[in-house]
Each structure stands twice: as C-alpha cells, then as structure tokens.
Amino acid sequence: MVANPSQADFDKPKRESVPIDSPSTLQKLIGRREFGPLVLLIVEIVAFSLLSTTFLSTGNLSNLLAFTPEMGMMALGMTMLITAGEFDLSVGSVFGLAPIIMWTLFNQEVMSLEAAFFVALGMSVLIGFFNGWFVTKLKIPSFLVTLGMMMVARGTALYITDGFPQRTWRADSALTEIIVGDFYIGEFRVYASLLWFILFAVVLGFLLTQSRFGNWIQAAGGNSSAAHARGVRVNRTKIMLFILTAVLAAYAGITSSIRVSAANPNSGTGYELEVIAMVVIGGTALMGGYGTIIGTIIGVFILRMMRNGIVMIGIPGLAYNIFIGAIILGMMALHSWLERRHHSGT
Amino acid sequence: MATELVRMENINKFFGRVQALNNVNFTVYENEIVGLLGDNGAGKSTLIKILSGAVLQSSGKIYIRGQEVDIDNTTDAIKHGIETIYQDSALVTQLSIARNLFLGREPLKGPGFLQWMDQDKMNVEASRLMREVGITKNIPPTTPISALSGGERQAVAIARAMYFDSDLIILDEPTNNLGVEETHGVLRFVRNARDSGHSCIFIAHNIHHVFQVVDRIVVLRRGEVVADDIDPKQYTVQEVEEVITGMRVM
Ligand SMILES: Nc1ncnc2c1ncn2[C@@H]1O[C@H](COP(=O)(O)OP(=O)(O)O)[C@@H](O)[C@H]1O
Ligand SMILES: [Mg+2]
Q: Looking at beta carbons, which residues of chain B come within 8 Å of A221?
C-alpha cells in the first residue's frame, strides 16, 4: 500500500478511498450510470414483445421511430443544459411556436419556405439567448425564467394563429425532404429526422465528453464558482447551451409539423417535463455536473416505448402517466442508491 | 537576504465596527514556507483572504515582486500567481483528477476550430504531477475527485498550483479533519512544493504541524502582528504558544 519506505512508520490509514485493483470490463459496465436504464429498456422490450405479437412488427417499429427523434432532439439539448446545472421549461412551447412562425410567414407569402425556416430558427436563438441572459446576468433561477418564457412563447403561438392550426400541405420542397423526407429500407419506413437525430447525438456526445467546451459544461454544473476561478466562462457556456436547447426544440417542432402536415399552436404542450424525465431517467444528474448522451438516448426510448407498448398490449393510453411516474421514481431511487453505495467509504 | 515575493503593507480591515486587522505588515520571501499562527479570531483567515481575493482590505497596499497590485477577486489572485487551497471548494468533485488539474487550461489537439481535449496528455501529466506532489498510492488520473479522501483532494489542488506555476500557495487549516497519515501527506506536499521553488503560507490549528514544516513563523494577536521572524529551530512549541496567548513578548 505504501510504496515509499519512509512512510512505513506512519499509523495505519483509517480508510481507503480508491480501490487499487482495476475492475473488470463487466464491473465497469455495471458501474456506469447508463447500466440501470439499459437494463430497464431491455426488460421493457422483452416484456412488450412477449405480451404483444405486433410490438416488434415492422409497422410498429417504423411508427415508433417516426416520432422518437423529435422528442430525442429536445432531450439532447436538455442533457447538455442540465449537465451545466440549468434546465429549460420553455422547450415544449418553442416546439409549438417555431413551426407556427415558419408556416405563417410562408402561407402569408411573406417569404420563401427556406427563409421562413431560418427566421424561425433565428427566433429560437433569441429565445435561448434571452433565457440564458436572464439566468446568468440577472441571476434569476432558470425555473422562473423559462416558466415565463414557456408562457410567452405559447401565448405568442396562440395569438398569431387565433388558436387555429396552420396549413402545411403546400410544402413539398427540397428543405422538407432534407428535414424529414421518408424512404424505405425493405418494408421499413425511415424518416430523415432519424438520421439527423443520430448525427446530433454523435456531435453532442463528442462535444460533451471530448471537448474543452464539454469539460466546461460539466464544471459549470458541478461547481460554478471553482470553475469561474479557473477562468472558465461559466455564463457564456450556459447562454450557449440555452441557445442550443431552444434551437433544437424549434428544429424538432418544425420537423414534427412537416411530418404530420400540421402546425398546431398547442403542439408540444407538456413535452418539457417529459423531456426532462427522459434526461434524468437516463442518468444525467438533475443538479448538474454529470451528463450522458447515451443515457439520454436510452431514456428517450424507455419512455417512447412505454407509451407505444402499453397501447399495444391493450392498456388504455390514459394510464400512461402512471407508468411514467413509476419509472421516474424507480430510476431516481436506483441512481441515489448507486450514488450512496459509490460514496460509502469516502 | 532572500528576495521578496509578496509584501502586504499597513493592511487594515474592518467588518462593520470590528477591526479584524490593525496595520498589518506581512512579507513572504521566495522559496519559503511561512507559518501564520494566532488564536481563534486573531485575523489569520482574513489576512490570507485579502491575498486570495476573497476579501477586500479596508486600507493598505499589496506588492508582488515590488510592483503594487490590486487583488479584487480570486481570478485576479490566480493571475498574479497566488493560489489558495481550500479544503473542498476549489475542485469540481464530479470531474476526474486530470480534468480538474487542467480545468480552464485544457491542452487541445486536432485541426483548427475542430479541436478536442488532449486527454492522453492530460492523464499522463496528471499521473506525473500526483507522484511529484508526493502521492505514493497508484490512483488513476481518471478517478473522480468525489472518490478521493480529504488529503488527496488537497494534493490535487497543490499539484495544480505547482503545475501552473503559482508563486505563492496558501493553505488555511489544511490539516483539519485529516487522519495522521493524511496529515503527514499534506505536510510532505507542502515541502515538495517549496523544494520545487514555490512559497507557501501555512495556517494550522495544530502548532506541532506548523513546527514540522515551516521555515519561519509569524504570529497575529487580535489583528496585530506580534512576531514576524520566529525561527522554529530556535524556539520551542511552548515558547511560541506563549507568544500567541500574549504571555511572552518578542
Ligand atoms: N465576514 C465577516 N463578517 C464579520 N466579521 C468577521 C468576518 N470574517 C471575520 N470576522 C471577524 O474578524 C476577526 C478575525 O477573524 P478570522 O480572520 O477568521 O480569524 P482567524 O482565522 O485567525 O481565526 C474575528 O473577530 C471575526 O469574528
Ligand atoms: Mg481561520
């Protein structure tokens, strides 16, 4: 234990903090925060496929993969933001507002669809900047700032449209094909949004774990004053993540509006909490300092499959929230138990 | 005579009507460990907080290598080469040893704006630094701070200060709540830091710890310096204790 012989006459240490024998690959896998959620996902898939013959059918899986990327994109942004110690309740409203802006501008023939697309994204940049600025510069908790923004954005969408959905059917352009065009692999219908989701996940996963920006995100969420003292630009990092989250929510909302051929001013209502649930179920720490993109992807699938699966096995969809709530509670208990077990001995 | 590193001149500090520091003159020379002693409430923490940017003096000046400087916040202090080791707060416990060591100064690799952290370099350097500071246990540099003991955390903070060439490393009660071996570890880290050319201010409740490690002792009493050049080799613990309590005048 003590390599230096001059240390040998010291008292025995009272405690050992780090095991020196290196754990096996299996132990490492089990020790990861994504392990619990992964097990739950596998159990879910097995259970639903045993209880329903159609759960694993091509049709159902295509269906499942159509909407999942839209929630998933929001969850990716939220993962980064929560890791930095903040969260955003306005994503559901931005998901609703962005396509309203885009389609209203296009339908009223104010501008081309492409231009309207960028105006809608530009608006989400402003919303994210505004959220971040209020949180970091005015030191108002993100709960209050983004709650306010949630109402402003939803109210704007309802006001612009008088509460009516916007037409999107004139929209067969290259842009809509790029965003959410579909194609078939055999019988399997795939939307381009799935590919975009995978791309975003890879880029953000790399950013979070491999880049300096990612180190700053984790430090900002873990101990922002220590990070600041080391020269980390904590406020700027958080503002950029608020912008990222808003842009991804806007993009997801636009994707959704093209796919279902409707831009409804109420769409996205309640998504903010479901997205936050996906993120924390996957293992990201709600109070910041640790985040996992892989865990979030697992969390997204856990909740989406739950919603899909309980309908497939004949449980009324209205019971969905019972299951979601139970999963959240169970997962939080698991993470907290693992955390305490990990820290016992230090 | 050794070269002067930091000089605090006529420092006064009031907290409302309480005068925590009264016309204090305090100098740290290059390459020495200064022990700062004094009873509870003597003003030790206040004095070093002024140096580390956590507290602003009511009046008085600070010179670094003869140049007057303003230290308004922690970032200023770090920029001027003054690093304070707190028992906990200066590290991000969720991040690994290596990521903490290089936080804010991460080495990068890769082309142009598409750069990522050079984690291999960070890990290799972190291992070397941990050995250099005197950690003899083989702790992987990817270990999160939360899995380290109090003494090991201080080793990380001291290693960071050494690596980024802080001239002055301040430790306020670093041995509180530490076990015997951990305490010896911290004393060893401090000695290693001095031997590689850094100066240290060492504050400890336990006067024996101070005697084991410092080159010179300064005593504060009720906000005033009552002795500033006690050689621990020439005085006993008992005699210095008398200075601290005011029974002996130097
Ligand atoms: N933030 C503060 N507000 C008011 N009084 C303070 C504050 N910090 C320290 N003091 C007072 O200043 C004096 C010196 O305190 P301190 O520097 O902490 O002493 P030491 O570290 O030597 O025990 C004490 O009387 C203490 O009560
Ligand atoms: Mg003190």
A: 94
